Amino acid sequence: MTQDDLSIADPKMRAQGVSVFYGEKQAINDVSIDVGTDLVTAFIGPSGCGKSTFLRSLNRMNDTIAGAKVTGTIELDGEDIYAPSMDVVQLRARVGMVFQKPNPFPKSIYDNVAYGSRIHGLASSKADLDGIVERALTRAGLWDEVKDRLTESGTALSGGQQQRLCIARAIAVDPEVILMDEPCSALDPIATAKIEELIHELRGKYAIVIVTHNMQQAARVSQRTAFFHLGTLVEYGKTTDIFTNPKAERTKDYITGRYG
Amino acid sequence: MTFNAAALLLLILGLALIGWLAGRARSAMLAGRSGKKLHSRPQYHGWYVALWLFVPAAIFLAIWSSVSPGLITNQVLASPAAESLPAFGFERSAILSDARDVAQGKAAKVRLPAAAPLVEPYAAATHRYAWIGIAAMLALALAGGLYAFTRIRPDFRARTRVERIVMALLLLASLVAILTTFGIVLSLLFESLRFFSLVPMRELLFGTHWNPQSGAPVADTFGGIPLFWGTVLIGAIIAMIVAIPIGMMSAVYLTQYAAPTVRKWVKPMLEILAGVPTVVYGYFAALTVAPALRNFAVAIGIPNASTESALAAGVVMGVMIIPFVSSMADDSINAVPQAMRDGSLALGATPNETIRQVLIPAALPGVMGGILLAVSRAIGETMIVVMAAGLSANLTANPFASVTTVTAQIVKLLTGDQEFDSAKTLAAFALGLVLFLVTLLLNIVALRIVKKYREAYE
Ligand SMILES: Nc1ncnc2c1ncn2[C@@H]1O[C@H](COP(=O)(O)OP(=O)(O)O)[C@@H](O)[C@H]1O
Ligand SMILES: [Mg+2]
Predict the structure, then answer these.
(1) How far is CA B59 from the centre of its chain?
(2) What is the CATH number of the domain that holds A148?
(3) For a surface tag, which of A19, A160, B287, B334 has the fewest beta carbons within 10 Å of its beta carbon?
């Protein structure tokens, strides 16, 4: 398969020499990485190594943290996302995000999914919006479970359903990239399996970047894996290579469970 | 010989100290003699004896100090010299207190001639009850001390007992406030019942004409509706129209936009505002805001604009409530998890959209609770309305007109010379009861809402 070739000719996102600082403290040091359009990219590494920090710099969520600073360049389709001309609202509509803990708004299921479309004015009519909501929920594999209770509060769903609602909410604004920060860490094994299945189905429609603690999960869902350690990118390559034939000693140690 | 509570308190404190030393020494001695190990360290045995000695005696002291004057007076009234006293009223109590002061050495000689024959019985009664009190107190102290002292054994669990006694004392302290409230409610209730025996409750609650007169109650003069309306107009409508938007906006600014340094300065300043005595706001309302509003009203041709207006009192009360609403809203907005805000921003919402569509709706239940508390505070506020709203009971929706409130009328009814059993005076208690019940209800509902809201984000 050509798409599993390591060189990515036309990356969806390209980070070059990226460092992230929280005040004086440096959390990410000189990371360069390409994110493929049709691929699922996994970020692995011991906790505190900067995976979330780097992920948040891809949709400029670090802007919301006082004192956070990003240097280097990050491009989306060749466009510098930290350039003054980049509208951060547009950027975040194109690069969606799913968080570690499901965070549905205390609104109805329908309003949760419709939230982004309403803000960005994507629907021209009520019927249009209904269609967007239905498609997003269907893609997130939640439609059959909630179609009769769209007016109920999103917070009344189970943890796994809430997380799929959050994925539907992100899909509804039709993003190009979806960032997921340990989306299953608060879920039970069955809900986790559903999310993984969903990631399989979404692959190809969106560029997906997933941070995970769970190495089996990275091996199951991703085609590319990046191993972070102490704020640096130690190794990046095809998932199969990283897990069967890691080049760096630190990667091998981590994968074989010597630390983490 | 009079009953000097302070000196007696010192006396039992001294006894308690002796008890402490004795208890400690005895426990150490018993342990030494029997060779057994003490369960509790010697000072706990000391404390055990001291507490048993002190607490019952001190409680008796407190009770005796409050009941003995009554007992003394009763004995005096039973004496033959009291037969010539006037039957009731101020004169009678003036004579009695005059005689008492002389008998207890607080005055050199009687001012009222009628008091002279009573001095002797008073002195005798004082003397008698002082001795009874002192003897009973000492007996109680000694009995308590001895009881505790004889229970000391090496394996006696003095530490556990002391802990339990201390806990009981702490419980007692926390009950004081509750019991006081209970007492207040009872007295309000009692006086209100007396009022309702003179004037039907229906009239107070639903009557529309308020013009209470001294003497026997006249029909259709105790209608509370104008007061209730004035209270609602000022406290729940005008004040809230001012306080809710400004308080909310300041909370949004402080939680979402203000730099930490700004927040560090502005928040304490708002809190200081909340501590300004209400009489100061009253001056501001009466001297500055009310005349300005009246001039404005006259200029735009509003009829019967008065210098005392609902608007002046309501606006200033609203300003007074701003810090309260703002700090409640601040807490509620801060209680909304950061994840909610991130979720909205990550969808491409602007900070403004996030505040309006996610944060405020999510914080609303908490804010509502805060607003109800603010209303309950506003309708109980007295000084501003007395100074700025006026005392004429008008049933009007014109905010430039003078209206009156429940609290202002209570003040009016209770000031000046009045006999304490006319319907006019008793009406103050009935109004107080209504106010108390309404604010109590508001507080209960508000606290429930706030609590539920907190749970939702646990
Ligand atoms: N908001 C923040 N302010 C300051 N330091 C932070 C902040 N968020 C994360 N960090 C620090 O940056 C480093 C990387 O954190 P993070 O990206 O959350 O790691 P990971 O997701 O890999 O567990 C950690 O040392 C963490 O303490
Ligand atoms: Mg993380």
Answers:
(1) 24
(2) 3.40.50.300
(3) B287
- Token pair 């609303």: residue: B364
- Across the range B350-354, mean pLDDT stands at 91
Mean pLDDT across B289-305: 84
B434 or B275, which is more confident = B434
> What is the edge-to-edge ordering of all strands in the sheet holding A224-229?
A95-98, A177-181, A207-211, A40-44, A224-229, A232-238
**Integer Cα distance of B339 and B387 in angstroms:** 48
> Residue B23's domain spans which residues?
5-182
Range(s) of the domain holding residue A75: 3-255
From CA B310, how far away is CA B390, in angstroms rounded? Answer: 8
- From CA A166, how far away is CA A97, in angstroms rounded? 9
List, chain by chain if needed, residues with CB within 6 Å of any ligand 1 atom: A 22, 25, 27, 45, 47-53, 65
Residue A260 placed within a domain: no
DSSP codes, B408-445: HHHHHHHSSS--TTSHHHHHHHHHHHHHHHHHHHHHHH
Residue from A28, A53, A69, A214 to probe ligand 1 pocket by mutation (most atoms less than 8 Å from CB): A53
Confidence label for A1 from pLDDT (cuts 50, 70 and 90): very low
Contact: A166, B337; criterion CB under 8 Å: no
Average pLDDT over residues B351-367: 88
- pLDDT tens digits for range B52-66: 999 999 999 999 988
Taking the C-alpha atoms of residue B86 and residue A125, their distance in angstroms, rounded to an integer, is: 90
At B81-112, the pLDDT tens digits run: 777 777 766 778 888 888 888 888 887 887 88
> Cα–Cα distance between B326 and B263 in angstroms, integer?
13
Q: Do B230 and B361 share a structural domain?
A: yes
ipTM for this model: 0.91
Number of structural domains found in chain B: 2
Same domain, B36 and B161: yes
Q: What is the CATH number of the domain that holds B289?
A: 1.10.3720.10
Mean pLDDT of all residues in A241-255: 90
Question: What does the buried/exposed string (b/e) look like for A165-177 if buried means 16 or more CB atoms within 10 Å of the residue's CB?
Answer: bbbbbbbbbbbbb
Output the CA A44–ligand 1 centroid distance in Å. 14
User: Ligand 2 centre and the CA of A51: distance in Å?
Assistant: 6
Mean of the per-residue pLDDT values of chain A: 91
Rg (CA), chain B: 31
Q: How far is CA A78 from CA A10, A28, B153, B178, B347, in A?
A: 9, 22, 88, 70, 22
